[in-house]
Amino acid sequence: MRTNTAGRWSARGSAILAIGIAAIVTGGSAGAAEISAHDLALIDRLTWGINGSSVAQFQKLGAARWVNQQLHPTADSALPQTVAAQIDAMPDAAGLTPAAINAFQAQGKDADQLTDPEARKTAKQAYQQALNDRAKQAATRSILRALYAPDQLRERMSWFWLNHFNVHQSKAELRLLVGDYEDRAIRAHALGKFGDLLRATLRHPAMLRYLDNAGNANGHLNENYAREIMELHTMGVGSGYTQADVESLAKILTGVGIDLKPEDPKLKPALAPQLVRDGAFEFNPARHDYSDKTFLGHTIRGSGFAEVDEALDLIVHNPATAQHVSRKIATYFVSDEPPQPLIDKMAKTFTASDGDIAQVLATMIAAPEFDASLKTAERFKDPVGYVYSAVRLAYDDKVVLNTVPIQRWLGRLGEGLYQRQTPDGYPLTASAWNGPGQMMLRFEIARQIGSGSAGLFKPEQADAKDRPAFPLLQNALYFGGLSRTLSSTTRGALDQAISPQDWNTLFLSSPEFMVRQRAEAPHEPS
Amino acid sequence: MNRRDLLKAVAALAPAALTTTIAGRVWAAPATDAKLLVVFLRGAYDAANVLVPVSSSFYYESRPNLAIAKPDVGNPNAAVALDADWGLHPALRDSLAPLWTSREIAFVPFAGTSDDTTRSHFETQDTIELGQSTKGSRDYRSGFMSRLAAELTRVKPIAFTEQLPLIFRGQAEIPNIALGNVGKPGVDDRQAELIKQMYAKTKLASAVAEGFRVRDEVVKSIADEMTAANRGAVSPRGFELSARRIGRLMREQFNLGFVDVGGWDTHVNQGAATGYLADRLGELGRALAGFREEIGPAAWRDSVVVVISEFGRTFRENGDRGTDHGHGSVYWVLGGGLNGGRIAGEQIKVAQPSLFENRDYPVLTDYRALFAGLVQRMYGLDAAALQRIFAGVRPADLGLV
Question: Which residues 155-174 on chain B approach chain A with CB closer than 8 angstroms?
Fold first, then answer.
């Protein structure tokens, strides 16, 4: 095919092709020449998408050590220096203090209090813009990490948990909080203990604001968060808890909220020792319902914040939680309908390891059901998986200078970062993402990614110059492995490409690129 | 044999008429009759300034800056008289007042969510789209138009939105396409053919073929616009542009549609006969008239358009010459075969004692009862089918269709 069509290509196309071939010959940065379809599938399944660097890292370590390093990232899993520098330059890269949140809220209030309508409008717009900028920065951090972090499995799990513990940026001032929520509540615990992760989300103002627990107080019960903890975050709907359990948990959670003031709230001396503060998080005993509660068949004595720990322990150790969380992880990595024996194995590990997420993943990866799914099952990419895998493959370790086009693509495809309104998070199954409208958008985005740099290398500053780079999909990895996993129908269509850009568009539009790599080529109808 | 059974029988006898499958479900070619479009005004529009209670002195006391003047043929900024009690915002004079005269439009005041008083956009939009009781937990995977589609046999649903809205989430997969900013597709015909080839033997073949078909229909309707523009016609913009495209697509292709339009959250300087809200209303009126024009007289006779919003706004104007989040709204129902030209549903005198919590319009017609009544008449649905769409709801018979 290469010789057949090369003559029809532009001079630039031939040059790109030559680079691709050179990379194979020299074993350059694009990495390994030959890799088995099984290894390709394994890497693709656990990362945001296969590329030359991921293959090189895999081949350097060997499968077992690579998997182990993905499960237990070490110091040499750090971000590339240029990426780290981009992130460190962001205002709240090091974390969001109550004082910073306070300053933002003050800006909003000041704007509201201006009497001149025009001045107020201008000030309000400035405030909204500042909030938008923070959400955009958070999305940029998230995307840069997803594209370039060597600890790819942690990045996959960070997205997974962010979605599992979903918050929506349009509520209140959440645009300011989502980045901190993702980095410190979610990513920090993405491969750790599930209980720690749950507690970190419970103590973060983003969650407390999103699901209204900041307003949950004795005599003014708000059940929203209590319900979602059990329904969505832990045990799962229909797992046996009752409306009375929801009410009990809501009472247990009274007083769990947010406090941005530097000074402690005024409390009666008897209650003062009960106060818990941690950054913007506060347990205010004056707002707490100290009655005894019956929760999941246990009596929880009214004792303050200790009740929350007691209740969360009951939830985390409930067998329904092990099942629910294991099923969801298996759905994400394995199949829309993961086999029950696989879920049971994962749940068993979950219980035995006190909810150790890395161990649950290790059980999944080692299971024969997972291996079988690498060979045959289709794992349809959600929009985030689709876009990230395309950019990773097209540019490998050449770092994009502007993530806004990626943010826009994710938004258009309906899976924008922090943009899921409802607490259930984005759906993980194929049927949510393979409708006609979605497929058309994917083909358009395939064309944008495949045809040129699509704004990815034009920094956002007003006077910035585009520093174009060319997507290189027909690279060493393609010739060394990917090409073998395409059906003859797809190869037949690719053979009809009339330029490298056209070839890229078709390749990124192909049925094979909509799903994660499989260890066997699709069965060819004869 | 009722009409629904007849349609079923016809569908069964004529497999050649079945055009596409989406996610394994066979969709029939749309019948030319019974088309429903739901238009969602997101942001809670100020209903009291659209269907103006011109006989209420309380209205004029409550809105010193915002009130629309009583009908007066000499005053272009006055309300258009509908009946003794109600007038129409003057921004709708040219587009929709003629439909009142021809009885193709009706208004349902005091409509909304009887069981959701959160006054939260987010909550109440969800409530309406899901169409479930607010008692008990919500199933976010089941919107009411999706449940309606599941009960119909010859239905071709589509959301004219960027993302599939909650209202259309459900078992079957429903296509969506936003029509506002459609440009010429970057993927050209040759690439489209190659892509279809690649998918031909996969289970996404029909989704991909359907996608290109819808895309090409949209492109064709854009091409028509360009031809018109070349002849000097003024090209519509914004929602009017989308609505005209929807009209063309629903004339030929689809018979169950949903579209939303934002920008109705007017806390500040909303204007009265002119100004921000008037501009939005003018555009909306032109959009609906444009939809009617494009769908054509034949299809319009079988079409029903329902305009809804999550809630109404405070009856009294606020300190910013705007209005805040309220409760009851006014829904609009349009259609070529409508028994319109009237104010439908239960009514109450517009005065201070009738207000809900002394601030908002009350809800006397629940949105679920209203839709249940409408679709029951439109599609001849039986009680069991209605219960599957709107559990526990007694349909309101407003005699509109």
Answer: 162-164, 166, 173-174
